[in-house]
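Hey Z.,

So I finally got round to the magnesium ion thing we talked about over coffee. Here's the setup:
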Amino acid sequence: MSSAAEPKPSLAASVPESVPERRRIEVRALSKTFGKPGANTAGQVPAVDRVSFDLRQGEFVALLGPSGCGKSTILNMIAGLIPHSGGEIRVDGEVVEAGKVKPQVGYVFQRDTVFAWRTVARNIGYGLEIKGVPKAEREARVAHMIGQARLKGFENAFPLTLSGGMRQRVSLMRTLIMEPQILLMDEPFGALDTHTKLEMHQILLELWERERQTVIFVTHDLSEALTLADRIILLSARPGRIKQDFAIPFPRPRDAIKLRETAEYGAMFAKVWHSLGEEFAATKAE
Ligand SMILES: Nc1ncnc2c1ncn2[C@@H]1O[C@H](COP(=O)(O)OP(=O)(O)OP(=O)(O)O)[C@@H](O)[C@H]1O
Ligand SMILES: [Mg+2]
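And the result:
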């Protein structure tokens, strides 16, 4: 891995030429049923049903749907954390197998997963420590990330003394410091208040503008999806199926606050909201 000071290779160039249209993620008829497989379907939970989509290099896609529709399950299968029950996933042209996490993939979990016993700096530097990156390089890269996350002055603080938003920034930076080309994010800001969430959106947008990672961002918050994504893939209520795939053509760079004042944002919100509302109603009727 290169140090922060060295010029980085373009992320697009890192996708093998043989991969069609530089597709980073290919999901084909992906299904997941929890519980024991077999003729007896009692106790089986169909969570995801034949979901297919592709992500090209640098695309920022939001996976949107009501609670329990299988969003985390889809992300966990793409990350190679759990096996699927049907279909296929490819990352950079290679089939994903459960238990074999790809090195180019970073995951920010649904709950912040900082270590309570490590300081901010040692949380952010954790992955580099495990990799055996020399101390001087590690410290330089951690200092850089702390600056980017607006956490200067809190290097030696323990997570318990931080706000929820600060902890979530530590979590985010701990993943980003490993320079993942593909970023899977599972409602990383779900527990934050509106103002802190908007601040996180601004930070994430600024970081992403610079690196242009390929991102799948799971959320059930439509405003968040519209603020961040190039595309919103809307899932139906459980079992999750793709209901609609919306292009979000708002110009970039985006201002998380000003964007919401535009007529285009309002029109797009109404369009997706109608479809999402139908799924909320379906969940309620279950
Ligand atoms: N390990 C498991 N064993 C059995 N059922 C599970 C397991 N994990 C998830 N499920 C079920 O699969 C369905 C989808 O769960 P998942 O966590 O993917 O939903 P989600 O869309 O991420 O919801 P939320 O927005 O609340 O996080 C749910 O009905 C859930 O109960
Ligand atoms: Mg979830």
